[in-house]
Write a structure and sequence with these properties.
CATH superfamily of the largest domain: Hypothetical protein, domain 2
Helix content: 55-70%
Number of helices: 13
Radius of gyration: 19 Å
Distance between the termini: 28 Å
CATH topology of the largest domain: Endonuclease III, domain 1
CATH class of the largest domain: Mainly Alpha
Structural class: mainly alpha
Largest sheet: none
CATH architecture of the largest domain: Orthogonal Bundle
Length: 230
């Protein structure tokens, strides 16, 4: 979906990465003003479970599975003692179901044993939970507790590398670089907007003709130049 705003010329080299990032976010925010996580949840525990399930899957698929999971295992105590085979079958459609089932039960047990059954509110404590990496922790912090976080998934990596805000395929490196580039107050929104843009426009096979920042995207400019010389 292309923005209805006038074309904005983002001279990254002359004005620096931060200004380029700010203007890029401004334009894309007009395309996705209500961007947020698409995972359905009612509390931090449910969001943590849903985010673990979303690895190598889609939010749509996860949302089809989680109502049954949340009903059957409404809290960490119930999930920690879940029958593993039964849990595996319940989450099978999300992929990697054996690994995810083990991660979920171990994560829940850690919540019960070390956090009184409550989801912790710090990056350090979250990433100490089995099956929880920085992306999952950032999602929980950002959307479960309304705290600053910058979730970096494959969509964020793709978009930011194409517009050359970053030049890395490592999610952790990208997270720290993007946190330095964007204002802390915009981290959550920036991540959500970039994810939506990656899902809708800047796909593996991008729809550059519909992109509102194509005039300043090095990837799009290279594609245009290549077609012009063919």
């Amino acid at each position: 979906m292309a923005s209805t705003l006038p074309s904005v010329y983002l001279h990254k080299i002359n004005t620096g990465y931060k200004y380029f990032a700010h203007r890029t976010l401004e334009v894309l925010s007009a395309d996705y003003p209500n961007a947020t996580t698409e995972l359905a949840f009612a509390n931090p525990y449910e969001l943590l479970v849903a985010t673990i399930l979303s690895a190598q899957s889609t939010d749509k698929r996860v949302n089809q599975v989680t109502p049954k999971i949340f009903k059957e295992f409404p809290n960490p105590d119930a999930l920690a003692t879940a029958n593993l085979s039964r849990l595996q079958q319940s989450i099978r459609s999300t992929g990697c179901f054996r690994i995810k089932a083990r991660s979920l039960t171990r994560m829940a047990a850690a919540l019960v044993d070390n956090h009184d059954g409550e989801v912790p509110t710090t990056m350090k404590s979250l990433t100490e939970l089995p099956g929880v990496g920085r992306k999952t922790a950032n999602v929980v912090l950002a959307h479960g507790f309304s705290r600053p976080g910058f979730p970096v998934d494959r969509h964020v990596l793709r978009v930011c590398n194409r517009i050359e805000l970053i030049q890395t395929s490592n999610p952790t490196t990208a997270e720290f670089e993007l946190k330095r580039i964007f204002k802390k107050s915009t981290w959550v929104h920036a991540s959500d907007v970039l994810i939506q843009h990656g899902r809708n426009i800047c796909k593996p096979r991008p729809r550059c003709n519909l992109c509102s920042i194509r005039e300043n995207c090095k990837y799009a400019l290279r594609q245009t130049s290549r077609r012009a010389t063919d």
